[in-house]
Write a structure and sequence with these properties.
It contains eleven helices and 13 strands. With about 300 residues, the chain is an alpha+beta fold. The strands form two sheets. Strands 1-2-6-3-7-11-8-9-10 form a nine-stranded mixed β-sheet, with helices on both faces. The chain starts with a helix and ends with a helix. The protein binds zinc ion. Zinc ion (ZN) binds next to helix 5. The site of zinc ion has 5 residues, from helix 5.
């Protein structure tokens, strides 16, 4: 059903709508625009490129002018579902790498790894969320909740010019999905009011071309279950027990590192670590795993489809 309607809709890709080669090509284009936090004109170039990608979609774009020497922020809102609390996707444009670093770490592929400045933290993940949104738009049926993707320009320095925007959008949302990289092993971090932040170890099997998606997607269904279970619950032990029953380990990660998700987790159910898997954030060997593209894009798509 989904495949049929995808084929008929404008903007869909032929064949597998989550083809990792096509998605990687989109990631590469964003990686090749270098965006150190301290180079607002570069961040704004990327903001323009990203905004252009929504032009043919049922979405409205709000561009918030940068200040204090930082680049612009971008808010892309689905044309539907904006009259009630929806899904906020939190992403950032900026990287820690200085201009010219791409000469040292050009985009290239070695085996399952794709290298490039910011490819793992977090241009890969931000693109997956955009791609998943495109696929929602390509199908006749909209997601139950509206989807808003917020891209900020200054996460790598603690979001001084975007924090108020993140908090305002976070307060309006029912769920916050953060496209920071997956922790090692494909962990996902969740948090909600009154509940410790958790990491969810997804035990599902990645699906490959030719394998029916339903055979590889049990983890995604289960993650949806976990989120619905966490919703309306503020007993961490209870959550942990239930998650274990359906195949997840929940690990308290309150002490884990910073992310913009920390600004929303105190008041809105927040799931962090939904970006690509890989390693070497902020290093000269930063890389993402190509095999993580399809399952993680499908996971985001499934979250859009099922959160309500
Ligand atoms: Zn990041």
């Amino acid at each position: 059903m989904t495949a049929m309607s995808d084929l008929k809709s404008p903007g869909s890709l032929p064949g597998n709508p989550f083809d990792s080669k096509a998605i990687l090509d989109g990631i590469r284009r964003r990686v090749e625009v270098e965006t150190p936090t301290a180079a607002p004109e570069q961040v704004n170039r990327l903001a323009t490129m990203v905004a252009d990608g929504y032009r043919d979609l049922p979405a409205t774009i709000e561009r918030v002018a940068g200040r204090d020497g930082r680049g612009d922020h971008l808010v892309a809102r689905s044309a539907w579902g904006q009259d009630q609390p929806g899904i906020l996707v939190l992403s950032h444009f900026d990287t820690v790498h200085p201009i010219g670093f791409i000469k040292r770490l050009p985009f290239h592929i070695e085996g399952d790894s794709a290298f490039g400045p910011g490819i793992y933290d977090m241009k890969g993940g931000a693109y997956l969320a955009y791609h998943a949104f495109r696929q929602i738009c390509a199908a006749p049926e909209r997601s139950p909740l509206g989807v808003t993707q917020l891209y900020v320009s200054d996460e790598e320095i603690g979001s001084p010019t975007s924090r108020a925007l993140i908090e305002a959008e976070g307060h309006k949302a029912k769920y916050v999905l953060v496209t920071e990289p997956a922790r090692d092993g494909g962990k996902v971090v969740t948090g909600r009011k009154g509940v410790a932040r958790f990491e969810i170890f997804i035990k599902g099997v990645p699906s490959h071309a030719g394998i029916p998606p339903q055979d590889g997607r049990s983890a995604i269904r289960e993650l949806g279950n976990v989120i619905q279970t966490l919703e309306g619950m503020n007993d961490p032990e209870h959550a942990r027990t239930l998650a274990a029953e359906i195949g997840f380990d929940l690990v308290d990660t309150r002490t884990s590192g910073g992310s913009d998700g920390n600004f929303t987790a105190p008041h809105t159910a927040t799931i962090d670590g939904l970006g690509v898997d890989g390693k070497g954030a902020h290093t000269h060997y930063e890389q993402m795993y190509i095999s993580s593209i399809e399952p993680r894009a499908r996971l985001l798509h499934r979250l859009y489809q099922t959160l309500q």
